[in-house]
Amino acid sequence: MISHGNNRKLLTPEREALILEALGNGVRTISELAATLQVSEATVRRDLRTLEQRGELQRVHGGAVRVDEGTKRELLFHEKATLRADEKERIAEAALGLIENGDSVYLDGGSTVLALARKLESRRELTVVTNSLMAAAELMESGHKLILLGGEFRPLSRTLVGPLTSPIGEALHIGKAFFGTIGLTASGVSTTDPGEAFTKKLILGRAEQAILLADSGKFGRTSLVEAGKLDDFDIVVTDSGAPSELQKILKKNKIKLIMA
Amino acid sequence: MISHGNNRKLLTPEREALILEALGNGVRTISELAATLQVSEATVRRDLRTLEQRGELQRVHGGAVRVDEGTKRELLFHEKATLRADEKERIAEAALGLIENGDSVYLDGGSTVLALARKLESRRELTVVTNSLMAAAELMESGHKLILLGGEFRPLSRTLVGPLTSPIGEALHIGKAFFGTIGLTASGVSTTDPGEAFTKKLILGRAEQAILLADSGKFGRTSLVEAGKLDDFDIVVTDSGAPSELQKILKKNKIKLIMA
DNA sequence: TTTATTTTTGCAAGTTTATGAAAGAATTTG
DNA sequence: CAAATTCTTTCATAAACTTGCAAAAATAAA
């Protein structure tokens, strides 16, 4: 098989370290990096793409910036919201198509799901259940019936998570549940926080229909805690940049794929 | 594809930082920024547009102003103008005196209790349980442990109310609970919404110590639903305008009165 | 070790993105 | 309400990016 783009297995840890060191904490241009590493610019780009998928750094036009402060911390809320905003917008639009007036829906945390929340004004008489304070703020004056899961507040994602969410979660009947994720692989979705994973699983087990919203950057990434198997989901909505590999995996699991 | 306006993927973080720094906290004109950043005015305009979309700054004719953190939050949960702001402020200050580091407190809805929430930055390691989204927004980045009651959202008061709040409420142990009210008479407190009353009673029955924050305007008023007997409360905090009649009634019920 | 297979790399062609200049629309100001 | 300034839109261009291919390197198999 011809390898290009992102099918590469791995990057030598040696060069990975070199790149990250070269980046320091500022921005480096591609040509600078190519000179430092003694490789072509094309190779640098491929390396950066790989490292971006792992969440180690953030590519920008002309170069890359290191993303972590200390170690792999999760991005702050508003930083995340501005990444791949275009893709997220399109994914949200496609997801909106799945919602009809009168539905009862669940909205998980995450910026893609938040983009969907903003579009719900165009529907009537929804019952919206959510664990996201941002989504709640967005829907406060929407006229929809709004129910918040209780629980412990997690500042990083601005969601309510953990065991305290279960009594309420168990009391509710949810039609369509929309989830975001940090990472998505053949084995399932993963997220950084155990409490977050707990609540995802809880709702995942109770919704009639589970829908995953994940932009193409999420594919191939894993995070700390497993939050659900791939076949827990009925539909996956992603953008056109998604690798064809994903299509195969979904087909095998009989999951419907929507490309926005 | 021709790129203009806002199709750009992202702005290098480098220049983003420069712009925000250049803005400082005053207004900068486009030409000033263009000179500082060594780019054309057209580019500055595009950058500003992008940053405005992210909510980082506010464009004005001729330049841009930075949006500060406080304003950002208010965009989400803008507060209605409050009556008797002075009294409420003093009551909140007095109530703060009842809270010690490490306490577990409950915050009810209402503007007086919200004023208290704003003061909690001065304490450490609190566990704050609340049914108020306004209070939650206020405490989001406080570092305190924050737990939200789940339940149905009531837009008017921006609180979570009704039977769905009971499973979580029953699972929690609460030290000091602070309540607001609409009306306060010798027979007890009352409020406009049955769901609101339900949740008040629920917590009232579970807190070790129940504290009522009520400015003098509340006395003598009744509202639709009874939300608690007077002797359910241990402490009442009010302002100096409170009628002496109240003192007598409280004394009879052996309730401590704090005049702010 | 040699051979077969997979993975990585550099180059080049084609595409996308960022930027500055310029023309026309909108706003402010006198 | 007219002049001046600022804004938006369009266009051209250069720089950056992606993708396909073939050669080189690394890995696995014989």
What does this structure look like?
Two copies of one chain form a homodimer. In chain A, strands 6-5-4-9-12-14-15 form a seven-stranded parallel β-sheet, with helices on both faces. In chain A, strands 1-3-2 form a three-stranded antiparallel β-sheet. A three-stranded antiparallel β-sheet of chain A has the order 10-11-13. The radius of gyration of chain A is 19 Å and the shape is elongated. Mean pLDDT of chain A is 85; it is low at 1-5 and 70-74. In chain A, α2 (30-37) crosses α3 (41-53), α5 crosses α6 and α6 (111-119) packs parallel to α7 (133-139). Chain A has ten helices and 15 strands. Chain A is α/β, with parallel strands linked by helices and 260 residues long. The A-B interface holds A 26-27, 58, 60-63, 65, 78, 81-83, 86, 133-134, 136-137, 140-141, 145-153, 155, 158, 160, 164-165, 167-168, 171 and B 9-14, 54-55, 76-77, 133, 136-137, 140-141, 145-153, 155, 158, 160, 164-165, 167-168, 171. β6 (145-148) of chain A pairs antiparallel with β7 (151-154) of chain B. Chain A binds a DNA duplex (30 and 30 nucleotides) through α3.
Which helices and strands occur, and which strands form pairs?
The structure is a homodimer of 260-residue chains.
Chain A: H1 13-23, E1 27-29, H2 30-37, H3 41-53, E2 57-60, E3 63-66, H4 77-82, H5 85-96, E4 104-107, H6 111-119, E5 127-130, H7 133-139, E6 145-148, E7 151-154, E8 159-161, H8 166-171, E9 174-179, E10 183-185, E11 188-191, H9 194-204, E12 207-213, E13 225-229, E14 235-238, H10 244-252, E15 256-259
Parallel strand pairs in A: 4-5, 4-9, 5-6, 9-12, 12-14, 14-15
Antiparallel strand pairs in A: 1-3, 2-3, 7-8, 10-11, 11-13
The structure holds a DNA duplex (30 and 30 nucleotides).
